[in-house]
Amino acid sequence: MKITKHYRVLVAGLFLLSGVANASSTAPDRTLPVAVKLWNGNKTTSRQEYERDILTAVLTATERAQGAYKIEESRVDYPLAEDEASVFRSKGFDIFGTVAGNQKLAHEQKIIIPSPLMKGILGYRILIIRKADAQKFAAIKSAAELKKLRMGIPATWADAGLFRHNGYPVEEKGSFDDLFQRLENNEFDYVTFGANEVTGVFTERAAKSGKLMIEPSLLVYYPFPLVFYVNPKQPALAERVTTGLKAIISNGELDKIFNRYYGGLLGPLQLTQRTRITLENPILPKEMAGFKPGI
């Protein structure tokens, strides 16, 4: 059969259309939401909600440029250090919020997004003590005096090593659930929580017995920024989160979320009126070396 020029053009055109159709069928559909797997365990409820809202704002700020999303959140707790360390490697999560320099991930591959999520408020530590010891703590005016007492902390929490590095006796064992019963039982003398969470923690977990109180005169401070860590296999997500954080910082959305959660807490805690004891943070990563709190 003789192949005419017209026939050759027609066949070429059909192949071209077929290629376009195949390319269209394999190209990602930007209208379909991308699943972002957030691990949000091992923390207080207020922090879980705050970090979820920050991530939502970040992804929303980049939605027009980078497409729709859906957050698949897990609040499963992993009390064992090796379980928390493997949230990316074996559990398949994409992102989670934690303190910068979290030692449980020291030997894990990860991408740190060095933009503080909470203005450093987590490093403003307020003590919960036994009411019977109120006068003892009111008399403390220096780090040397506080070092004579024992701090209690659940096993594997990031700030246990930080306190030890600064010369404080630490009783590290048990869980968040039994922490306040152990304080009542005189196993140690105090516990500390960030100014963002101490009121809620006390109300929800420590107030019931009537034997404990939020200590009103002391503030332990150390640089302790909260950041997002991203799965090293998700560099595009890391770039998106970085861009989104810059956007919500510049447009004031981060401030609005922070004030909605914590703006009403700072006044009653009277942070500037307290005796301030400052600690060094040896786990602060080099990306955050110049960190300054924003409150």
Helix and strand arrangement:
Blueprint lengths: L4 H22 L7 E6 L5 H17 L1 H4 L2 E6 L6 H5 L9 E5 L11 E3 L10 E7 L3 H5 L4 H4 L4 E3 L5 H7 L4 E3 L6 H6 L5 E5 L3 H9 L5 E3 L3 E4 L4 E5 L4 H16 L2 H17 L5 E4 L17
Parallel strand pairs: 1-2, 6-7, 10-12
Antiparallel strand pairs: 3-11, 4-11, 5-8, 5-9, 5-10
Helix pairs in contact: 2-10, 2-11
Walkthrough of the structure:
With 295 residues, the protein is an alpha/beta fold. The protein is 38% helix and 18% strand. It is built from 11 helices and 12 strands. It has helices at residues 5-26, 45-61, 63-66, 81-85, 134-138, 143-146, 159-165, 179-184, 198-206, 235-250, 253-269, and strands spanning 34-39, 69-74, 95-99, 111-113, 124-130, 151-153, 170-172, 190-194, 212-214, 218-221, 226-230, 275-278. The protein is globular and about 60 Å long.
Name some characteristics of this structure.
about 300 residues; alpha/beta; three-stranded antiparallel sheet; disordered N terminus; single chain; 11 helices; 12 strands; five-stranded mixed sheet
Give a short summary of the structure:
By secondary structure, the protein is an alpha/beta fold.
Rounded radius of gyration (Å)? 25 Å
Whole-Å distance between the termini?
84 Å
- Please write the string of helix (H) and strand (E) elements: HEHHEHEEEHHEHEHEHEEEHHE
- Assign an overall shape: globular
Low-confidence stretches: 1-28
